[in-house]
Amino acid sequence: MSSIDIQHAHSLSDDKARSAIGEVAEKLQERFDVATRWEGQVLHFTRSGVEGAIELLPGAVRVKAQLGFLLSAMKGMVESEIQRVLTEKLG
Question: What CATH code is assigned to 2-90?
Fold first, then answer.
């Protein structure tokens, strides 16, 4: 298994950051057929081959994920896409 751990700073209010992460969750559901659920300030996501969470921190979000065997081969592409979406949604 391969892991991803990305922290991305932002200057949004907590409510706006949570809303932006909600939009990210919708994209994950549409593009990758993941199941998502909020638990406090953490959005958990899962599907076959990947399990992770997006945690809302003061002034930042942290994305942690465990990639299964097949997705491990595409780790660089997955990390790049996560960074792109975080920049798009959070600045």
Answer: 3.30.310.50
Q: Please give the Cα distance from 5 to 63 (Å, whole number).
A: 6
Return the domain boundaries, the chain: 2-90
What's the pLDDT band for 59 if we cut at 50, 70, 90? Answer: very high
How does residue 13 score in pLDDT terms, banded at 50, 70 and 90? very high
Residue 18: per-residue pLDDT: 92
3-state DSSP call for residue 50? strand
Query: 40 burial class (0-12, 13-18, 19+ CB within 10 angstroms)?
Result: exposed
